[in-house]
Each structure stands twice: as C-alpha cells, then as structure tokens.
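Mods, move this if it's the wrong board.
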Amino acid sequence: MNFAEFDESIRNYFNLTREEHLFGKLTYGRLIELLKVNTTGIKGMRIVDFSRGENSFGEFRFITLKGRIKNTLDQEMTIYLTAYGHGYHNGRDCMVADTWDFYTSFTKFVTNDLPPAYTIRQLENEHEEFIETKPHNEEYVLMEELSDPDDALANIVPE
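Not the wrong board. Structure tokens:
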C-alpha cells in the first residue's frame, strides 16, 4: 500500500467526501452524521474527547474520534480525527458555529471512550444556544461572500 492508498483508507474509514478530506472542513450537520454512525459501533469508531480548548486560531469545542486502519505495511494502527468548531476565531473576529475544521493524527493522549448519545445530545444543545447568541463580524461575512475565507481575512483591516 502506498501513501495515496493509505490516505484514501483514512478518508474511507471516516466516511469523508473528497472535498471534506481535501479542505479539512465539515458542516455541523455532517459532524452530527459522523457521530451518529459512531453510535451504531460501525467500524469500531469511538468518541474519545469532548472538551473546550484553544489552538492557534482561537477557542473551540474539540471532538476526537478514534478508529483502526491498516498502514502501508498492512499492519493495524490507531487513527484519530479531531474536529474543532463552536468557538471564537481570533483572526476572523467572529464566532464559528456551522463549520468544523478537522485534522487526522496517529497519536493522542486520551483517557476513555465517551457515550455517543450523550455527546450528540450535548453538542445539539450547545449548537442551539450557540446559534441564538453568536455574534459575527459583518465585514468579514460580506468579504467572505464576495471572495473566499482566506481572502476575506487578508482584506479586513484591524481597528
């Protein structure tokens, strides 16, 4: 198995579309779909993290899924997909509710599996509250509609 096939096996395992995998983004609805697949125990996927935290972009909700795939040497290995959203994006000066960025990794400090139904219910409750209260940067939203997120970010002049 070469790297391209290995990368494709990650995409297939987590049931990601080509665009989701390429751009590292999920909609809120797709994230819930992924978590609901997890509730059936398909492919042995587990939710191993559901926390708030910070990264270089801002403060977000993090959700980590764990699964097992075969590597390029045809050996079983653990893979993690961490999605982050429902938070404040520092650079864009806005709240992020409907899109979730994600990345895959091969190592993660995790303590235990979390109950999928509980995690989904918590996320749905949080999403409703988040949508009702989310302030957003009008200038950024307008620039994003006219171009793309990165170009919009580059064209906003800080006050």
